[in-house]
Write a structure and sequence with these properties.
six-stranded mixed sheet, Cytidine Deaminase, domain 2, single chain, alpha/beta, five-stranded mixed sheet, 2 domains
């Protein structure tokens, strides 16, 4: 279709920012992920925990953030005792993990070490109330329409935190990192997702000990299989007074 010159109009638009974040562990470049600037230390803190690299809920690893505005990139330096690094550290990563898929940076899907849950029943009204609460705090999405939102809630539906990022896996890590930093990880019972639920989202929630996932969109087949295996509750297509329970 041809558009006439008289029908064209110049507009201003706001775009979500995507920049590289390098992660170094004890002076060695471990990974680089594409992310939306902000909450970098929470992202790395959550990533180390959900990837079974550094699993303390009490003591943070030593971390420092360096931002190069000219090059539009950031670097997080992590220092930790070798004895404190878990099995995930020995599973090397490729140097680039794109925003759409964090698991793509892993050489292999390692055995996950988490808690097997006993599935619980929830009131429809409680489940249906969570995504609107998250949506009301997605300010970056309101401005750009180009990022994902992840939120954590208590068992009674209290909002604990909302994080946004161009990558779903980054937003999950930011949520986990925030909860760790504020000693609230044990309070998190629901994780809500603004997009589809992939294998990796289920795996990260499992590693963090969060038993229930709720999404406005679809799950993947492997996500459902994993949730069933781990005893997790996975609810998707939660919108317009309807939802689908997959596990």
């Amino acid at each position: 279709m041809r558009i006439k010159a008289s029908e064209q109009q110049a507009v201003s638009d706001v775009l979500v920012v995507e920049v590289p974040l390098q992660i170094m562990i004890n002076g060695v470049l471990w990974s680089m992920t594409m992310q939306t600037p902000g909450d970098e230390l929470d992202l790395v803190r959550g990533l180390l925990y959900s990837e079974d690299i550094y699993r303390s809920k009490v003591i943070d690893p030593e971390m420092s953030l360096q931002c190069d505005e000219d090059k539009n990139e950031a670097l997080v330096q992590v220092r930790a005792e070798e004895a404190d690094l878990k099995d995930g550290y020995s599973n090397s990563r490729q140097l680039l993990s794109v925003a759409s898929c964090g698991i793509c940076g892993s050489v292999e899907m390692k055995t996950l070490q988490g808690q097997i849950f006993e599935r619980e029943e929830y009131a429809f009204a409680l489940v249906a109330s969570l995504l609107p609460k998250m949506r009301s705090h997605q300010n970056l999405f309101d401005a750009t329409g180009g990022c994902h939102g992840i939120a954590a809630f208590s068992k009674k539906g209290k909002l604990l935190v909302v994080k946004e990022d161009i990558g779903r896996h980054n937003a999950v890590d930011k949520v986990i990192g925030y909860l760790l930093r504020n000693k609230q990880l044990n309070e998190a019972h629901f994780l809500t997702v603004s997009g589809r639920i992939s294998y990796e989202i289920v795996a990260k929630a499992f590693m963090a000990g969060i038993p229930s996932l709720i999404s406005v969109s679809a799950p993947s087949s492997l996500a459902v299989d994993l949730a069933k295996e781990f005893g997790m509750r996975l609810i998707a297509f939660c919108r317009e007074d309807r939802l689908t329970v997959y596990s």
